[in-house]
């Protein structure tokens, strides 16, 4: 494993300097783009790492996976009447599809879908923020994990597009709670800060038929785990999901903080971090590193 990661690291590191950090909020625009780390967590919980693998970063849309899992833990398949399971083929923050499709978001991994899931979680938990924080601490085995209030406040101050999606869903009677409160909880989740090591550990249950060897418990059933992995494979990388499937062929989820998590079912989970993004908002070095990984292990879910 170590020589696998060392090989990927030296192959991809020369790309540092390409791409652009997210700049829609000042707190993310000031992140140093010259960072690159990878961590792999095997299904028995063993970590292999390289580069900036212990540097916490803003997990952003990677939180959408954990948010969905929290919701799936407390609701049955009726969840899928309120949110779809088809790829969107559009940017993560697009509004157009939502009106065409009567306020039902295409999938839980675009912003509209994640806001809808946050609404669902809000109906179930007295404090959704504590629920998410504690869930991530349990899954990663790191009790220090927290949300960065500067990032969350800055996202809230620039909330107009996300707010528009939530209010549109409310107009279609597909949103139960106070929009502003749900937005704050959604941004709290996006502003969680975790390292590659934390995230590789936290996502490992998806590689292990729903069982977390870190938390030592079943997080999802094997069947629900298959559903989440299928959704990640078709919708986890926004409008790059198709080419990611061609190049990498693993279920994965990106965030505009520069992280990407991916799952090699039955074997290991992986998290790559490098803050400079490509045109669709996925980590440029992260996608390249995962492409190199899938070539080197000559394995994909397809
Ligand atoms: N907080 C970001 C937003 O809502 C998350 C986007 C992302 O990581 N793609 O716009």
User: What would you say the CATH architecture is?
Assistant: 3-Layer(aba) Sandwich
Helix content: 40-55%
* Low-pLDDT segments, ≥5 res: none
The helix/strand series, from N terminus to C terminus, equals: HHEEEHHHHEHHHEHEEHHEEEH
Total of DSSP H or I helical runs spanning 4+ residues: 13
Tell me, briefly, the overall form: globular
- The fourth-level CATH homologous superfamily is DD-peptidase/beta-lactamase superfamily
The share of residues in extended strands comes to 5-15%
Broad structural category: alpha+beta
Strand arrangement, largest sheet? Answer: 2-1-10-9-8
Radius of gyration: 18 Å
Question: What is the CATH level 1 assignment?
Answer: Alpha Beta
> Main β-sheet, in a few words?
5 strands, antiparallel
CATH fold name: Beta-lactamase
Span from first to last CA?
22 Å
What's the mean pLDDT score? 96
Topology:
Blueprint: H1 2-12, H2 26-29, E1 37-42, E2 47-51, E3 57-58, H3 63-74, H4 96-100, H5 111-124, H6 128-140, E4 146-147, H7 149-157, H8 160-171, H9 179-190, E5 192-194, H10 196-202, E6 211-212, E7 217-218, H11 222-235, H12 241-247, E8 252-254, E9 259-264, E10 268-273, H13 284-296
The protein binds glutamine.
Structural summary, described in words:
The protein has 302 residues and is an alpha+beta fold. It has a single domain (2-296), classed as Beta-lactamase, CATH 3.40.710.10. It contains 13 helices and ten strands. A five-stranded antiparallel sheet has the order 2-1-10-9-8. The protein has a three-stranded antiparallel sheet with strand order 3-5-4. Helix 5 (111-124) crosses helix 9 (179-190). The longest helix is centred in the middle third of the chain and has 14 residues, at 111-124. The chain is globular, with a radius of gyration of 18 Å. The mean pLDDT is 96. It binds glutamine. Glutamine binds next to loops.
């Amino acid at each position: 494993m170590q020589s696998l990661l060392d090989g990927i690291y030296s192959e991809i590191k020369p790309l540092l300097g390409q791409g652009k950090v997210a700049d829609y909020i000042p707190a993310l625009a000031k992140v140093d783009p010259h960072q690159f780390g990878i961590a792999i967590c095997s299904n028995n919980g063993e970590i292999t790492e390289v580069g900036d693998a212990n540097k916490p970063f803003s997990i952003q849309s990677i939180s959408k996976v954990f948010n969905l899992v929290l919701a799936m833990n407390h609701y049955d398949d009726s969840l899928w009447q309120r949110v779809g399971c088809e790829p969107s083929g559009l940017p993560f923050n697009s509004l157009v599809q939502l009106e065409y499709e009567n306020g039902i978001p295409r999938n839980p991994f675009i912003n509209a879908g994640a806001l809808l899931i946050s609404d669902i979680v809000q109906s179930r938990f007295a404090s959704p923020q504590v629920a998410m924080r504690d869930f991530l601490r349990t899954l990663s085995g790191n009790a220090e994990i927290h949300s960065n209030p500067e990032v969350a406040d800055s996202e809230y101050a620039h909330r107009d597009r996300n707010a528009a999606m939530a209010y549109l869903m409310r107009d279609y009677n597909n949103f139960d709670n106070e929009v502003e409160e749900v937005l704050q909880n959604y941004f709290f989740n996006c502003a969680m800060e975790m390292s590659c090591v934390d995230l590789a550990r936290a996502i490992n249950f998806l590689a292990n038929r729903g069982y977390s060897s870190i938390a030592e418990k079943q997080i999802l059933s094997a069947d629900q785990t298959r559903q989440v992995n299928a959704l990640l494979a078709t919708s986890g990388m926004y409008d790059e999901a198709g080419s990611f499937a061609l190049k990498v062929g693993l279920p994965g989820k990106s965030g505009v903080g520069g992280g990407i998590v991916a799952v090699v079912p039955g074997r290991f989970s992986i998290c790559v971090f490098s803050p400079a993004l490509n045109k669709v908002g996925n980590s440029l070095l992260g996608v390249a590193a995962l492409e190199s990984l899938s070539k080197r292990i000559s394995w994909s879910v397809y």
